[in-house]
Amino acid sequence: MRNTLRLANDPQAETENIFDGLDVNEATRKDYSARVGLFISFIEERGFNQQSYLSFKRYLECRADYRISTKNKYLATARVFLKELTRRGKLPFDMTLGVRQFRQSKKHRREGLTDKEIRLLGVKLKYLPDTRRNSRLRALFSLLAFQGLRQIEVVRLNVEDIDLVRKVAFIHGKGEDDQEPIYLAPATITALKEYLRIGNLTNGALFKSMGNRPSERMSTMTIKREVGALLWELGIEKTVHGFRHFYITELLKSMNMRDVRKFSRHRSMEMLMVYDDEVSIKEKAGQVFKILGEFNFAG
């Protein structure tokens, strides 16, 4: 095992073949295929031996240009790749055993959108001209802010998944094989009605590209680009994920975690506890400042 690993004549095709055997969705396979290249380059340059996985982790540890979350994604991809090679009998042992992921804080590094920012966005969208692109932007805003949908859930929606009579939508949730219903907020219903009317949409993908490939389903990158442009225009330095953060945080202010879990569709309570802790800490910070205020030397 001291020699360099060789993956046929086309390493990329070989790795894709490895990931094709995994029982995961297409998006996950594509993500693995895109990320495994760093590990392949690493072992081709430094050789392949029993310590390669651990050495790769130490290499990632020294990469100051990667966040811990990014390092873990590359490490996890290499782990999946090596375990699948072992399962297929191409490796005589599992070299990933005993090697842990990087320890990562469970607190959010990026803040969600605030009440003020959501209102500012709402006013901006309200007075935009009634064009197809603007009606789409209003629909996206509503699904993100008032339904707390993940971006992948938004782009998977079909026109047939929207039932405006029953005021529900059927979404393909993260990691789910089947669709699940969600109740639509009044503002979301209004935005979707307008979007469907202006776009004259009756079937197929709810959100399609408006670029050179109008028949293709809109991508999450398009959401990031278009919604991100709106945020930038208003001077809001947040990401699109900030909408979901806002949605969950607002619910936690007046609902218990068990109910919020149903509406946010989190599999476990652990992630919701992170949101809840952030809400509690923010509220209690004011109390702490008040307690220590009398010791303020700044006047």
Structure description:
The chain has a three-stranded antiparallel sheet, with no helix packed on it. It starts with 10 loop residues before the first helix and ends in a 7-residue tail after the last helix. The relative contact order is 0.09. Strand 1 and strand 2 (168-171) form a beta hairpin. By secondary structure, the protein is mainly alpha-helical. The radius of gyration is 23 Å and the shape is globular. The protein has two domains: 11-88; 115-284, Orthogonal Bundle (hpI Integrase, Chain A), CATH 1.10.443.10. It has helices at 11-20, 26-46, 52-61, 68-87, 115-126, 132-145, 151-155, 186-199, 220-233, 241-252, 257-264, 269-292, and strands at residues 162-163, 168-171, 180-183. Mean pLDDT is 82; it is low at 1-9 and 295-299.
Keywords summarizing the entry:
disordered N terminus; 3 strands; mainly alpha; hpI Integrase, Chain A; single chain; 299 residues
Shape: globular
CATH architecture tag of the largest domain? Orthogonal Bundle
Could you estimate the helical fraction of the residues in percent?
40-55%
CATH superfamily of the largest domain: Intergrase catalytic core
Question: What structural class should be given to the helix and strand makeup?
Answer: mainly alpha
Write down the CATH class of the largest domain.
Mainly Alpha
- End-to-end C-alpha gap: 69 Å
Order of strands in the sheet with most strands: 1-2-3
**Count of DSSP H/I helices:** 12
β-strand number? 3
Radius of gyration (Å): 23 Å
Uncertain ranges? 1-9, 295-299
* Proportion of residues in β-strands: under 5%
Q: Provide the domain count.
A: 2
User: For the report, how would you describe the main beta sheet?
Assistant: 3 strands, antiparallel
Helix and strand element order? HHHHHHHEEEHHHHH
CATH topology of the largest domain: hpI Integrase, Chain A
What's the rounded overall pLDDT mean?
82
